Amino acid sequence: MGCGSESETETPPPVEEPTCAETELELSDGSCVPVGVPADACAEGFEAWDGGCNPVLPPDPCPPGLMAIPGDTVCREVAPCGEGPWGDIPIEAGTVFVGRGERLGHRHCHDRKRSRPLVGTILRSRIDRSQATGLLILGSDATIDETQVRDTMNATEFDHARGIAVAIDGLNMIRANATLTAVTVERSTEAGILVSGSDAVILRSVVRDTGATSDTLFGDGVATVGWFGKASTYLADSRIEGNSRAGVLAYGAVVSVGTTVMDCNPIALNGETFESLDFTFEDRGGNHCGCGGQQVTCQVSSSNLAPPDPDVLGQ
Fold first, then answer.
1. Which residues contact 36 (CB under 8 A, 6 or more apart)?
2. What pTM value is reported for the model?
3. Collapsing DSSP states into helix, strand and coil, what is residue 306?
4. Least confident of 3-7, 14-18, 224-228
5. Which tens digit of pLDDT belongs to each residue from 170-193?
6. Which of 1, 21, 115, 159 has an alpha carbon 20 to 30 Å from 140's alpha carbon atom?
7. Using an 8 Å Cβ cutoff, are 104 and 138 in contact?
8. Burial level of 237, CB count in 10 A (0-12/13-18/19+)?
9. Domain ranges, ordered by start, for the chain
């Protein structure tokens, strides 16, 4: 309600007609530009199309083993392999080359004297169908992360197919020291992981389905043997399952186990005296034993189980 006379009315402001089309945007200076991404603003590898940007790619999907990124008009290798067995990998001062079926510390130094261990790292790798031992860490300090070792095969001269062996270099009496994290070892023969005369830390790992040898012996998940006086394994946050004989063994060695599941192994934990050395099991708590959901108390047995053959340790 206002105070003026009834004859007074307000005149509405004039309606301004749009100066830009429906598909255009008016800028502060009154000019009009098309809605969307300007044709000259597309990133490298893209081209302007209908107010936007489309990736430049081959007309058809790439087959397995090839790839394309925006800007590629034809499919290409994921990465060039380069020349020779190692290609164009970065090489540092401490790089140790370990090929299929080769042994960390063996090819380089087992045939000559040395006074200190080699140092090596293996990350995010897969080792399949090697012979005798999938990965041998011999008298070396090694870090193995996010690596799978599967289906190791028997060699003609050995009746075993170990997944990973951490072994003392008996020629130079240099112990190995390995840290295995997020490692999976499957379908080995005799031992999934064998630690002999050395030290290992095994974290967040899985060892399963280790088979017996041809004479129906062995078939153990993680075995630690006190060759040359001492050996130790620290096992935590892991799963040891479906092995033919025992889950975790100590032969005259110190083994610590914590927050680990030992499932469906005929013997969960076993310890034996070896070369007059007593074994020690340290229970760090949080362990589970049993099979198929049936849980039992984790107990250490002494079943007179034979250790791996000393003549082939470190092979």
1. 50, 51, 52
2. 0.66
3. coil
4. 3-7
5. 888 889 999 999 999 999 999 999
6. 159
7. yes
8. middle
9. 103-308
- Mapping DSSP onto H, E and C, the string for 242-279 reads CCCCEEEEEECCEEEEECCEEECCCEEEEEECECCECC
Query: Under CATH, what is the fold of the domain 103-308?
Result: Pectate Lyase C-like (2.160.20)
The residue among 263, 250, 255, 264 whose CA lies nearest residue 284 is 255
Q: Using DSSP, how many helices (H) and how many strands (E) does the chain show?
A: 1, 29
Give the Cα-Cα-Cα angle 274, 276, 281 (nearest 5 degrees).
55
Place of tokens 């008298």: 139
| Residue 34 to residue 270: CA distance in whole angstroms | 77
Sheet holding 118-123, edge to edge: 118-123, 140-145, 177-181, 199-203, 232-236, 254-258, 280-283
- CA-angle at 195, arms to 291 and 174, nearest 5°: 170
Specify the DSSP element, H or E, that contains 108.
Answer: helix 106-109
Phi, psi of 311 (to 5 degrees): -70, -20
Q: How does DSSP assign 217-229, residue by residue?
A: ---EEEEEE-GGG
Q: Tens digit of pLDDT for each residue in 130-183?
A: 888 899 998 899 999 999 999 998 866 566 789 999 999 888 888 999 999 999
- pLDDT of the residue at 9: 66
Q: C-alpha dihedral over 238, 244, 250, 255, to 10 degrees?
A: 10
The backbone region for 19, taken as left when phi is positive above 0, alpha when psi lies in -120 to 50, beta otherwise, is alpha
Q: What is the mean pLDDT of the chain?
A: 84
Q: How many residues does the chain have?
A: 315
Q: Which two tokens stand for residue 143?
A: 């870090």
198/200 Cα distance (integer angstroms)? 7
Give the rounded distance of the alpha carbon of 228 from its chain centre.
31
Are 246 and 218 contacting, i.e. CB atoms less than 8 angstroms apart? no
User: Residue 309, class by beta-carbon neighbours within 10 Å (0-12 exposed, 13-18 middle, 19+ buried)?
Assistant: middle
